[in-house]
UniProtKB/TrEMBL annotation:
This is DNA-3-methyladenine glycosylase I. It comes from the Bacteria. SUPFAM superfamilies: DNA-glycosylase. It holds the Pfam family Adenine_glyco.
Length: 184
């Protein structure tokens, strides 16, 4: 019996990473708070391994009030200091302040964050034959990053925007034959 085909990045021995690949990555995520969580976590991941974020995700959820946009938008400097002291998350002042600023920007979006992000979905993107065929940036991710920045979002460049698009199902970048691709 042969092992199922998976995207090579999921080939790690860590069961958390494998479960994320098989059960979450590329599954459509909608709703403002749910999308805000993913925008925030992608920003915190910048420069780090996604596995680091996965291992700390529950801590992030607890520290950031389950990523409730109104609650995070109301954070004060005391909250920034609390978060900087929380060893369970990534303690980077710029990223913490960006998450708070992004929550405030999300409150002002006509139609909400989920609607804005999902306008950039690309269900017709070509099926990658291998991970070498998966881009880091696309015209769609450039447009999404530009629109988010126009509304005041931070830590949302085109590469981070594309990672978000992949993670929440705006594109399906599971390689051809991947066990998770068939279920999307």
């Amino acid at each position: 019996m042969t092992d199922p085909i998976r995207c090579t990045w999921a080939g790690m021995a860590d069961p958390m990473y494998l479960a994320y690949h098989d059960e979450e990555w590329g599954v459509p995520v909608q709703g403002d708070d749910a999308v805000f969580e993913r925008v925030s976590l992608e920003a915190f991941q910048s420069g780090l391994s996604w596995l680091t974020i996965l291992r700390k995700r529950e801590n992030f959820r607890a520290a950031f009030d389950r990523f409730s946009i109104p609650k995070v938008a109301a954070y004060t400097e005391q909250d920034v200091e609390r978060l900087l002291a929380d060893a369970g998350i990534i303690r980077n002042r710029a990223k913490i302040e960006a998450a708070i600023s992004n929550a405030r920007a999300a409150l002002d979006l006509p139609g909400g964050l989920s609607e804005l992000v999902w306008r950039h979905a690309d269900p017709g993107a070509p099926v990658p034959g291998s991970m070498a065929d998966v881009p880091a940036v696309t015209p769609g991710s450039k447009a999404l990053a530009k629109e988010l920045k126009k509304h005041g979002f931070k830590f949302v460049g085109p590469t981070t925007a594309y990672a978000l698009m992949q993670a929440i199902g705006l594109v399906n970048d599971h390689i051809q034959g991947c066990v998770a691709r068939r279920s999307r």
